[in-house]
Amino acid sequence: MDALSQAVTEEAKSRANNLLSGILRYVDTPYTRDTDEPAAIWRRGNARLLDYGTPAGAKGPVVLFVPSLINRYYILDLESERSMLRYLATQGLYPLVLDWGEPGKHEEAFSCADYVTDILIAAIDFLSKTSGGRIALAGYCMGGVLSLAAAQARQQKLCALALFATPWDFSCPTFKPFVLDDQWLPLAQSLIGSQNKLSADIVQSLFYLTDPWVFEQKFRRFQELQPESRAAKDFIALEHWVNDGVPMTSHVADDCLIGWAQKNDLMQEKWKVGGRIVRPCSITIPTLIAIPRNDHVVPYECAQPLADAMPNAHVINPGAGHVGMIVGSRAKRELWQPLTDWILSISQ
């Protein structure tokens, strides 16, 4: 074996060993979130509305946060020192979050549109009535798409809309390698339709396909961290959230994986909610759109066309990734505080 082949073999062994060591360290490290879940003030099916304003005594504008259907809401409340929701409650806002829960009997046949019309719009109506005024709506990732549809239906009850890392145009170059040929679409739809739900493991695997090396890289980096370091503890907390996924109903999977990602229904204005096509140009309330510079889940080219289509959009570009924007070391400076200042300014 020549020197180059020997060097490559040794490097491969070293990386494999570090990867396995990192995984084993993660599995063997106990972890419990250091936050208590707030009270649920409203329920529908398996969905709950969690009140983050009451514990902090917040009195300001009501903001309803809408997470993705396929990840737990608590990325917005990861830990006491890394909680967007708890921070906003100390800065003059009244935050609440819609915890979708896992799809149960009530939601088992839901599409994305059904989640909007049956749950999200009902939550907006409830908060508008109980608060006595218009509220702000804030959606993260897939939750941003759902929020946009709800805003179109209930614009008169909203004072503002905020969208974080919200996908829109799946024809961008980053997604092209994952777009199926027309001959494979019927098979993909058939496979999705044969399942009552897509498990969280399958959904997570699909995300890894957008960056196949991310799994290997992140656990090798974790292995190199000091066990008691802040960085190691942050990794453990975030990885527990990543692995605590939520299954998708088959209709939601068909919407997201086929309609949005393969057919580009959002950008082409073919997605209907409540019988109406969702059109960003119809949203005239003030809108804050956060598009991270280093997002590998929703790339800039996928998110920017949404901002371009909205008549009253203000765009910010946090210098982080898809999740780092929410919980990273610069999140308070680059997203939490700008969001607070923006909502307070338009509420005066």
Task: List descriptors.
alpha/beta; Rossmann fold; eight-stranded mixed sheet; 348 residues
Query: Structural class, from helix and strand content?
Result: alpha/beta
Shape: globular
> In percent terms, what proportion of residues is strand?
5-15%
Which range best describes the helical content: under 10%, 10-25%, 25-40%, 40-55%, 55-70% or over 70%?
A: 40-55%
Can you tell me about this structure?
An eight-stranded mixed sheet has the order 1-2-4-3-5-6-11-12, sandwiched between helices. It has a two-stranded antiparallel ribbon with strand order 7-8. The protein has twelve helices and twelve strands. Helix content is 43%, strand content 14%. It has 348 residues and is α/β, with parallel strands linked by helices. The chain has a domain at 32-175 and 279-347: Rossmann fold (3-Layer(aba) Sandwich). Helix 3 crosses helix 4 and helix 5 (185-193) runs antiparallel to helix 9.
What is this entry, summarized?
The protein is an alpha/beta fold and 348 residues long.
Topology:
Layout: H1 3-28, E1 40-44, E2 47-51, E3 62-66, H2 84-89, E4 94-99, H3 112-131, E5 135-140, H4 142-153, E6 158-164, H5 185-193, E7 197-198, H6 200-209, H7 214-224, H8 230-242, E8 248-249, H9 250-260, E9 272-273, E10 276-277, E11 287-290, H10 300-309, E12 313-316, H11 324-327, H12 331-347
Parallel strand pairs: 3-4, 3-5, 5-6, 6-11, 11-12
Antiparallel strand pairs: 1-2, 2-4, 7-8, 9-10
Helix pairs in contact: 1-7, 3-4, 5-9
